[in-house]
Every structure is written in C-alpha cells, then in structure tokens.
Design brief:
The protein has 111 residues and is an alpha/beta fold. It has helices at residues 25-37, 47-53; strands at 4-6, 13-15, 42-44, 62-65, 70-75, 78-83, 88-92, 104-108. Strand 4 and strand 5 (70-75) form a beta hairpin.
Length: 111
Amino acid sequence: MAEYTTTANQGLTIPDDDDSFLKSVPDYIKALAESVEVRLVMRFATMAEFTSKITIPVNGMVFWVSATNSLYVYANGGPQRIYPSTPITTASPDAPTGTGEAGQIHYQYGD
C-alpha cells in the first residue's frame, strides 16, 4: 500500500511523492473520500437517521435534516440548530409525541 501524508491546512489525505501511489489508486481514492466526507454538509431524512449513522459525532460536524428543513452543527455535546433561527411551530388537536427539540413550539387546540 502507498504511503500517505496530509495537507497542512485541513489534514486531507494525499499520496507521498513516490511510485507506489500508482499501484494503489483505489486505496488513495477511498482515503481521500473518507477525509472529505466528514467535512461536507451531511444530509439525513430525520434526526433519528443522524443518530443511527453517526454513532460518535464530533464538534464541528454540520448536517441537514430534511424532515424539519433544518441545518445543525454538532457542538458542546449535542446538535445545535443553526437554521432556521426562528422557532419551529406546529399545531394540532393531538398532543405531540416525543420530546421535540430546543426551539420547537407546539400549540394543542381542543374541540
């Protein structure tokens, strides 16, 4: 397997300057993809999908949750919603299920 080094700024994987790189292009591409993947805005259908796929999140991870059209950054031990910045409101005659998240407001109306 070729030897790799990292870029000075973001620590992305790059091959060393030797001929062994030519013998292991798939390994290099995989290493580069894994380096870049955690720096992209990840997309998940729900928050549950995020927690099931990212079992050890790290501060600075940025991700989008389609179910709530919300952008989050993982910081201080948990996901922090950064968009939209205003509260998410819902209303229905039924009580909400689950605990919700910070910034959510639910109005339950009766008959």
